[in-house]
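Handout, section B. The chain below has 239 residues.
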Amino acid sequence: MKTITLLIFVCFILVSCNNKTPNNTLMNEITTDPVTKPPVREVIPDTLVKVSKPFMLNGNECYWEHKLINGEEIIIKLFDYKTHKLLLKHLDVYPPPNYNKNNYFDEINKESLEDVNFDSYTDILLKSYSGNMTMNDRVYVYLFQHKEGIYISSDDLEANRIERIDKKNRKLITSNEYRYGTDSIIHHFDKAGKIKSTDQFSHYRILEDTTWIDYKTYRKIVNGKTVNERTQSDTIKWE
């Protein structure tokens, strides 16, 4: 009888051990197998930095810093060489075609430094070339503010092109090209460098059904107010 009882007890222990082993193994797999994640890669933009040699501008020693990001965007800054004060900042999405030339900054200064409002201080023209059509090109004008010692953007003078800087008559002539027209603007400045009057000439076409209407307009603006305006139109019909 004792022998039978002993055998039953041994069998009970063996069955219990067999039932626990799978559960224990499964728990071990859950708790000890870590969930792995792919490492996150930091994306660092490809940036090319160019710094010019110091040069004199309006009595101060300055230098350019240009950053080309991913070959698509350029950040242009002008600093005071001694104090590193930021004098101008400009963002453009069209890098200039001559960006990789060794004399890049020499060319920038040659074509960009002009007194466009005739106040005896040098201003800055930054030209944006789209590379496609002239109508997408842009000349940004930054006028020197001698009291603050910085350069401020002038929206009134921006255009596709600077046609002429007439120092003798204190006139700046700009032009724009549109899909169906052009304009030419003559800015007249006083001795303080402020615009005293503007002559605007426009030539454009408008299509109405099968008829093109050709317009030529003129507008005279003095101290921000239109004092003279006239329009001439002709029609061209398609056969």
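Note. The first strand starts at residue 47 and ends at 51. Compare this with the example in section A.
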